[in-house]
Amino acid sequence: MESRRATIKDVAEAAGVGVATVSRVLSGGSASPRTRERVLAVAAQLDYRPSALGRNLRQRRTGGMGLLVPDLTDTFYGQLAEGVLACARSAGEPVVLGSTGDDPEQEAELIGMLLEQSVDRVIAVPSGGADTWGPALKAGMTIVFADRLPAEPAPDTSPARNDPADDPTGDMPERAAVADLMALDGVPLPEGRTGSGGRTASGGRTASGGAREGAARTRPLDVPAVLADDRTGIRTAVRYLRGLGHRRIAFLGGPGHGRRVAAFREAVGAPVDEELVVFATGSRDSAYAAASGLFQSRPDLTAVVTGGNVLGEAAVLAARELDLRVPRDVSLVMYDDVPWAELCSPPLTVIAQPGRDIGYRAAELVLRAGTRRPRSVVLPTELIVRGSCGPRY
Amino acid sequence: MESRRATIKDVAEAAGVGVATVSRVLSGGSASPRTRERVLAVAAQLDYRPSALGRNLRQRRTGGMGLLVPDLTDTFYGQLAEGVLACARSAGEPVVLGSTGDDPEQEAELIGMLLEQSVDRVIAVPSGGADTWGPALKAGMTIVFADRLPAEPAPDTSPARNDPADDPTGDMPERAAVADLMALDGVPLPEGRTGSGGRTASGGRTASGGAREGAARTRPLDVPAVLADDRTGIRTAVRYLRGLGHRRIAFLGGPGHGRRVAAFREAVGAPVDEELVVFATGSRDSAYAAASGLFQSRPDLTAVVTGGNVLGEAAVLAARELDLRVPRDVSLVMYDDVPWAELCSPPLTVIAQPGRDIGYRAAELVLRAGTRRPRSVVLPTELIVRGSCGPRY
DNA sequence: AACCATGATGGAATCGTTTCCATGGAATCG
DNA sequence: CGATTCCATGGAAACGATTCCATCATGGTT
After folding, report:
1. Pick from B200, B330, B356, B187: which is nearest to B259 by CA?
2. Which of these ranges, B206-220, B250-264, B333-347, has the smallest mean pLDDT?
3. Is-contact B95 B64, C-beta < 8 A?
4. Is A178's pLDDT higher than 90?
5. For residue B25, what are the CA distances in angstroms to A117, B5, B190?
């Protein structure tokens, strides 16, 4: 009863053929119909399942893919993960999961673990930058980023003031054709203002970069990505708020929202009121603190756009705590459409991005890699107007 | 630059020792301090990382653990997964993830995948019953159930009426001592009323069970589990609602809520109004339909307890759609404390269960297995009173 | 009729690790 | 001082698959 699983050798003996033949039959090689049939029958009868262990060792790679997300408690990443799993399941591939907590160090550790497991395909919502992902790339991993691109380390020149006007990413048609990644990630995240700390290693490591450093900075990683069209989403939201009469619109961002804040800056136009652009770390506490601080320091703001659903949650909570009515006192647009957005009262107006699709497409890309050089994908966002925005009074 | 990873053989040669010695040094065997030091130095210098592939093949088992949950879009399972990942990370073990969609067939498929990968430790929120998990057990897997126990197939006798009175699970002290599992899962899920279908294989397979079938039915699986104290949680909620004057209290359940509905029946007492006990499948649509149907068919009910947060969400939505005010027209208690429970207005009164802890403990159990026969764990629940319950008018 | 091409087949090497076993030297004990 | 023990050590055999390569049979061509 407790017999161990049948091996290919067992099948070969039982079928009276060599192991090579069995292997060929099972993996679609050439074999005479007679033998094929017999082998198949014996294999079925013995309930033989090829061990992934032997195969993986021989081909020096584990099948399947790794999936690295910041936090599964965030509904959006849950959706994304479901998408990845759906694709992986239909391909019959296993998925190794890791949660980084938006911490580059944990992320690096998880990458190390995947390397050890010889998992050479990874889908990641990256937290670290080139420091973290360079080694993975060099180790030959096939990587697809989802939902974000790695934050680029801030240039060493005056990180406090990144004048968005000097970024010529106007309508970026040709740059997109040449280098889709860089065009999409036009403006680096203004590290100076964020509290997203913990990237202690970056300063020290880059010292060894040498002459190529400038170029590496400009285009650190050449990795395909599946992203939502943040720029259009944010722009649509800002225009919508503008149309309602709002002029002092704040942005509440978190780690990984670099492209969104850039889009926000672009959408609101030249003189950006920097006090209205606030960042939190990944935690719910930090999000709440940031939201609360924002409302208190700038009671004159009339609308807020949040870069993710955890921030949106925090904004609702903070507003309630400070007796700000939504949308009467403050209008709110949240990034991410999550089921509970409709439960709030008023229901939250959101910028919906297709989390599940993002995951699915990313998984497709990472599986197809090798067949065809995967190119980045940008999926549309949609402004879903519910009840959390009103005219400015 | 593109050199492949160093193997143990490379280290052995570079250090001038045999591979066996390297292996011993690296896995804590005996070695002279001199050699140990040298090997360690060489290994570090070569950036050697033992390949899990070779090790796994040799020991005929993959490290790490599988994790099977119904749906990562459900915040509670997100919390649970985070707990598992936290424990796995601290043990340096990989986690292979699968999402079952509450479908026994998909679950069985995923188990097959894990078997193929030689992942012999699994944490699961089970959807299928003994049909699904028996094979896994027989294959020698170490299994720990989390959050639920497998549904037992309904006895072949009149599945429509399961008189709860004939279940003697009164206060179950001694039964718990003998068989914690069965005591906890006193009353089978009333399959007749649910729409959780899809267990097509069960009828066919069990035909081969033979004489032992009756016994197998009574105690199908001997697997440790980490559960929340559903019984106390539900009882507390029902008593709380009773104290507010509610008499017609409904229960809205989903797949896997067998123990909760049993506790509900027990808590409301002998003549259970069966129309007030309604089940949905796992999907949000089905949950909404069930909630809406319940409110419409029984407008006289004054309170609802939902067996999970997706059902709670559905109840809020359905109530709003039908112009039922919470808590004025209907009081609501939701199982699961999720961040957005506080966002609703009024904020939802919930039965909190420690999702993260459940996952963490389950992972601990599954890792410790072999050392010590793991026993089941029951974690406390807590009624968190917010604003969704009011006195009956 | 001899020869060559083709296709099916099995033996054996290989992947990177752990672990069994034999060997040799040093140390301890009688 | 001899014998016994003990420990460090390296060679080699697994683990279960894939895949290269040689072999053999067959059928068609010259």
Report:
1. B187
2. B206-220
3. yes
4. no
5. 21, 19, 57
With a CB-CB cutoff of 8 Å, which residues 346-375 of chain A face chain B?
none
Cα(A142)–Cα(B168) distance, integer angstroms: 58
Share of chain B above pLDDT 90, in %: 73
Write the single-letter amino acid at B182: M
DSSP symbol at A151: P
Residues around strand C, C-beta < 7 Å: A 16-21, 24, 30-32, 34-36, 54, 57-58, 60; B 4-5, 7-9, 19-20, 22-24, 26-27, 48-51, 53-55, 57-59
CATH topology of domain B228-353: Rossmann fold (3.40.50)
**A52-193+219-226+355-379 and A228-353 share one fold:** yes
- Return the residue matching tokens 């990562």: B72
Q: Which helix (H) or strand (E) holds B204?
A: helix B201-206
Q: Name the residue among A52, A79, A344 with its Cβ closest to that of B116.
A: A52
Q: Exposed e or buried b for every residue in B112-122, given b needs 16+ CB within 10 A?
A: ebbbbbbbbbb
Does A26 contact strand D, using a CB cutoff of 7 Å? yes
Strands (E), A29-157: 65-69, 95-99, 121-124, 142-146
Round to whole Å and give the CA distance between A350 and B94. 35
Q: Give the separation between CA A252 and CA A261, rounded to whole angstroms.
A: 9
Q: What is the pLDDT of residue A202?
A: 35
Q: What pLDDT does residue A155 have?
A: 58
For chain A, what are the domain ranges? 8-45, 52-193+219-226+355-379, 228-353
B52/A5 touch (CB, cutoff 8 Å), yes or no: no
For residue B352, the number of C-alpha atoms closer than 13 Å in the C-beta half-sphere is: 16
CA of A301 vs chain B CAs: smallest distance (Å): 22
pTM above 0.70, yes or no: yes
Q: May I ask the CATH architecture of the domain A52-193+219-226+355-379?
A: 3-Layer(aba) Sandwich (3.40)
Contact of B319 with B287, CB cutoff 8 Å: no
Question: Dihedral, CA atoms, B80, B81, B82, B85, nearest 10 degrees?
Answer: 130
Residue A5: what pLDDT? 87
Nucleic strand D near CB of residue B181 (< 7 Å): no
Place of tokens 């990942």: B85
Digit-coded pLDDT (tens) for B341-392: 999 989 999 999 999 999 999 999 999 987 777 789 999 999 999 999 999 8
A250: nearest Cα among A269, A275, A228:
A275
* Confidence at B2, pLDDT banded by 50, 70, 90: low
Contact B383, B234 (CB under 8 A): no
Find the length of chain A: 393
What number of helices (H) and strands (E) belong to chain A? 16, 12
User: Nearest residue to D20, CA vs C1'?
Assistant: A20
From B340, which residue of chain A is nearest by alpha-carbon distance?
A: A340
Residues of A in Cβ contact (< 8 Å) with B51: 116, 118
DSSP string, A154-218: PPSS-TT---GGG---SS-HHHHHH-HHHHHT-S---GGG------HHHHHHGGGGGGGHHHHHH
B164-186 per-position pLDDT tens digit: 443 333 333 322 222 344 334 43
Long-range (24+ apart) CB contacts under 8 A made by A36-43 are A39/A11, A39/A15, A41/A15, A42/A11, A42/A14, A42/A15, A43/A11, A43/A15
Residue of A47, A71, A110, A340 to mutate, testing the B interface (most B Cβ within 10 Å of its Cβ): A340
Q: How far is B61 from chain A (nearest CA, A)?
A: 8
Distance CA B118, CA B112 (A): 10
